[in-house]
Amino acid sequence: MSTNEQKRLSQEITPKAVFERRRDLIKHAAAGAFGLALAPWFSREALASNAQKLIATPNPNFVLKEESTSYQYVTGYNNFYEFGTDKSDPAANAHSLQTRPWTVSIEGLVKKPMTLDIDALLKLAPMEERIYRMRCVEGWSMVIPWDGYSLSKLLNQVQPLGSAKYVEFITLADRKQMPGLKSQIIDWPYREGLRLDEAMNPLTLLTFGLYGETLPKQNGAPVRIVVPWKYGFKSAKSIVKIRLTEEMPKTSWSQFDAREYGFYSNVNPLVDHPRWSQATERRIGDSKGGFAPKIKTQMFNGYGDQVASMYAGMDLKKFY
C-alpha cells in the first residue's frame, strides 16, 4: 500500500465501536420526531450496509492480546481477484454478488453427500467468535474477529470414507456477478485444498461473519473458510462446492506458479518467497502508518501448539 493510500485510509478510519454507535444514532434519529424530515436520508444511511447481526459466542481459547484490525481496513483492503486485482476493487465491485439463494454441495469420497442451503449451514452448529491472526503471503497481516464454527462439524455430517485424504474447495465463478473473471490471471473457478487432517483440525473455521455481522461480500460472503496458520490465499471465499478426494487437488495459485505458491503454504518465516523475505510482516492499520516497524512473523502464524504435530518429520522447505 502506498504512503498516500495509507494516509487516506488513516483519515477515513473509524473504530468498530464508533461505527456501531453511529449506526444506532442514525436508526434512532430516523425513528424520532426529529427524523421525520430527514428520514429518507437517514434511511439510506441505515441501509448502506446490508450486514446482519450474527449471534456468536466468544471462544475464550481464541482471544488475542493483540488489537483487532479496524473494520474499515478488514473490509476495505482485500485480495478477491474475482472482483479485481487492486486492494480496493473488492469493496468497490462486490456489490454485484448475490448471496441468496446460495447452496454448498459436499461430495466425493463421503458416505452421505449432501447439498445445504445457507440457512441450513448457519444452523448446523453453534456460532463462535474467534479472533485470529491473518498473514498474507504478500507480507502484510491483520487481526480479525471471525464468526463461524469448525469445518469438522460439517465434514462429520457427510461421513468421510476411509479413502478420503484431501478436501477441495471450489468457489463461485459467475461472469455476470464477478467482473474480475474477465482477466485470465488464473483458470477460474478458484480452487483451494487442504489435507483431510488439516481440514478436520479444530482451528479450521467455516466462516459466516466478522465483527458480529454476516460476511461483507468483499470478504467472501456468504460462506468461506479461514485457516489461520496458512497464508491467506488458502482460505477460500464464496464457496459453492466441497469435494473429498484421494489425490491432492490442483489449487489455483499453485497452478499459476508452483515455485511461488505451494500446496501447503504454511506461514513460515524460515522459508522465503522466491521474490521476498517472509521473516517479517507489516500490520495493516497500525497507528504509526507507513512508519510502523515491521513485526516478526511467527512460525505457523503463532498457532504451532495446535498444528505443528501435523507436519512432524516433513521437510517444510520442500513441502512449502
UniProtKB/TrEMBL annotation:
SUPFAM superfamilies xrefs:
Oxidoreductase molybdopterin-binding domain (SSF56524)
State the Pfam families in the record: Oxidored_molyb
Q: Does the keyword Oxidoreductase apply?
A: yes
What GO molecular functions are on record for this protein? Answer: metal ion binding; molybdopterin cofactor binding; oxidoreductase activity, acting on a sulfur group of donors, quinone or similar compound as acceptor
Amino acids binding Mo-molybdopterin:
78, 81-82, 136, 171, 219, 224, 235-237
Cofactor binding summary note: Binds 1 Mo-molybdopterin (Mo-MPT) cofactor per subunit.
The protein's role, per its UniProt record: Part of the MsrPQ system that repairs oxidized periplasmic proteins containing methionine sulfoxide residues (Met-O), using respiratory chain electrons. Thus protects these proteins from oxidative-stress damage caused by reactive species of oxygen and chlorine generated by the host defense mechanisms. MsrPQ is essential for the maintenance of envelope integrity under bleach stress, rescuing a wide series of structurally unrelated periplasmic proteins from methionine oxidation.
Q: Quaternary structure?
A: Heterodimer of a catalytic subunit (MsrP) and a heme-binding subunit (MsrQ).
PANTHER family for the chain: PROTEIN-METHIONINE-SULFOXIDE REDUCTASE, PROTEIN-METHIONINE-SULFOXIDE REDUCTASE CATALYTIC SUBUNIT MSRP
Name used for this protein in its record: Protein-methionine-sulfoxide reductase catalytic subunit MsrP
